[in-house]
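[scheduler] slot 2 assigned
[scheduler] job type: sequence-to-structure, two independent chains
[scheduler] chain ordering preserved from manifest
[runner] begin chain α
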Amino acid sequence: MVDLDEADYSRFPLIAKVRGEAAVVEPGDVLFVPDGWWRHEHGLSPEHAALEIRMGTGGRPRTAGSAVLAVGRTVEDRVTRAEGPREARHWMRVVAEAEEADWVDLGTVAGQRRVDMAQMVRDEVDEGLPVVAVVAAAGAGA
């Protein structure tokens, strides 16, 4: 772990590129830190207190329709990151039609990466969609 007060730039050279924001929080103030963001805090007085409350993504169960949209957006984002915006549509179709064996050379790193990406898409669909949405989606294609 990096000590931000006494950073060892020889061990952690990339820490020099870290940028952040500063905020002074007064008693009664609330500072919202989005999920996945790092934070580093200093008390400005010898006596101070901090309370951290972590929130989930939502307590309401997803409806079948909203689950399809959420999973679709997640898959689209991950495939676009993996393959780039120009190739994302092609690879989403390849995975949807289970044709990756026709398009992937398993003897290459890129081929193995694409097989992993296809499995990630299937896992996301399996884990993210309620059974009702999967059955409805299957029925819509019939």
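[runner] end chain α
[runner] begin chain β
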Amino acid sequence: GVAIASYGEVLFSLLGFTLQVASILSEATRLTLVQVLLQKQGLKLNPITTLYYLAPACFLILTVPFVVLEFDSLVNDPAVHVDWLVFGGSALTALALNLSILLLISHTSAL
């Protein structure tokens, strides 16, 4: 999909293309590892238990680049206003998406 979308693009960026491909490969690896966790003999993790273990790790991994790269500019920008209703709705949508992905992987295959 990335190759088709960028074919013939006037403002093609090799860095952006490389980052997008790396993102796709990372997501494929993540889905495969989650499938191994959900379907491994002896563990029998259900989607909610898996999310219970994966969410804090993902939060910690994503917090470090946020603090290093974005936190100062976000706090010091007077134009930034956080709408907590939108923020909460977005968080609930992300939770529902993650649960649906884990449920789908547990009943089918990530491959």
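[runner] end chain β
[qc] chain β: The longest helix spans residues 47-76.
[scheduler] slot 2 released
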